[in-house]
């Protein structure tokens, strides 16, 4: 009885530790006062100011476009790389996978400075350099997501498709790809999350005149965080929450509908 109480208390404590700061952020986004300790009444003006703030809109646009573009490119490259690595012999497989894991284990500041030096030597820093940097550190995460699924797959199904007359491309897209599709989607969203969440690599490779949300908020720290940043963070949290709810409950609803239709 006592053990169960402490287990529940520990769980509640962890959840509170994680979500109380977010709850405070949401409350501050509706606070009419700029103070973080004085409640000035309920207001939506920070959301209105946010929509008319060109700097925030531009930073949000850069964050989204770079995030989705880098995730899509990294997913395509990572998928091809995972297929190639899976077909390697044991020694080459271990060596290649070990080299591919280095960017994930490497410190972000080392990766950021190395990419900054590389781009400064061969091109100018800006939107393209951020995009290429994000693609670079996203690829290993995509490979890590897809490769285990390829190893679990029964290749006899692919060989059967070839025996029935399908060429290698058709057999891949009709047989292999549907089987690994969940891991491909998982790799894409992992890459998207890493890209939108990144600060260090973006800071070193962005150059002048361009910002993402992370670098813009970091710049705001010197002058003090504006209340519209609370509103922006609240909107991002709300979107993520809705996506998670849909991802968890829509499949269950569809499954129940299919069972009812079958009955």
TrEMBL record:
One GO cellular component term noted in the UniProt record for this chain: plasma membrane
Family: Belongs to the binding-protein-dependent transport system permease family. CysTW subfamily.
Protein name, per record: Putative spermidine/putrescine ABC transporter, permease protein PotC
Keywords associated with the record: Cell membrane, Membrane, Transmembrane, Transmembrane helix, Transport
GO biological process, one term: transmembrane transport
Positions of the ABC transmembrane type-1 domain: 60-247
Transmembrane segments: 9-30, 64-85, 97-119, 125-150, 171-192, 229-250
Pfam families per the UniProt record, alphabetical: BPD_transp_1
Major localization class: membrane
Signal peptide: none
InterPro entries linked to this entry: Bact_Polyamine_Transport (IPR051789), MetI-like (IPR000515), MetI-like_sf (IPR035906)
Subcellular location: Cell membrane
SUPFAM superfamilies the record matches: MetI-like
Superkingdom in the source lineage: Bacteria
């Amino acid at each position: 009885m006592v053990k169960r109480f402490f287990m529940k208390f520990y769980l509640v404590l962890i959840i509170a530790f994680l979500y109380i700061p977010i709850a405070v952020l949401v409350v501050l986004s509706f606070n009419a006062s700029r103070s973080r300790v004085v409640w000035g009444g309920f207001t939506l003006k920070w959301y209105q100011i946010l929509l008319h703030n060109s700097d925030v809109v531009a930073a949000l646009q850069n964050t989204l476009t770079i995030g989705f573009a880098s995730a899509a490119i990294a997913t395509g490259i990572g998928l091809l790389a995972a297929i190639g690595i899976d077909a390697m012999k044991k020694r080459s497989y271990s060596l290649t996978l070990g080299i591919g894991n280095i960017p994930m284990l490497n410190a972000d500041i080392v990766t950021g400075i190395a990419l900054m030096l590389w781009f400064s030597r061969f091109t100018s820093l800006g939107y393209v350099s951020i995009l290429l940097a994000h693609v670079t550190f996203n690829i290993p995460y995509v490979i890590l997501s897809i490769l285990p699924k390829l190893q679990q797959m029964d290749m006899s199904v692919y060989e059967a498709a070839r025996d029935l007359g399908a060429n290698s491309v058709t057999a891949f897209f009709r047989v292999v790809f549907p089987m690994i599709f969940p891991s491909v989607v998982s790799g894409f969203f992992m890459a998207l999350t890493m890209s939108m969440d990144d600060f260090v690599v973006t800071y070193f490779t962005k150059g002048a005149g361009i910002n993402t949300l992370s670098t813009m908020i970091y710049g705001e720290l010197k002058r003090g965080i504006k209340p519209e940043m609370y509103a922006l963070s609240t909107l991002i949290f709300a979107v993520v929450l809705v996506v998670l709810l849909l991802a968890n409950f829509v499949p269950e609803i569809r499954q129940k509908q299919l069972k009812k239709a079958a009955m």
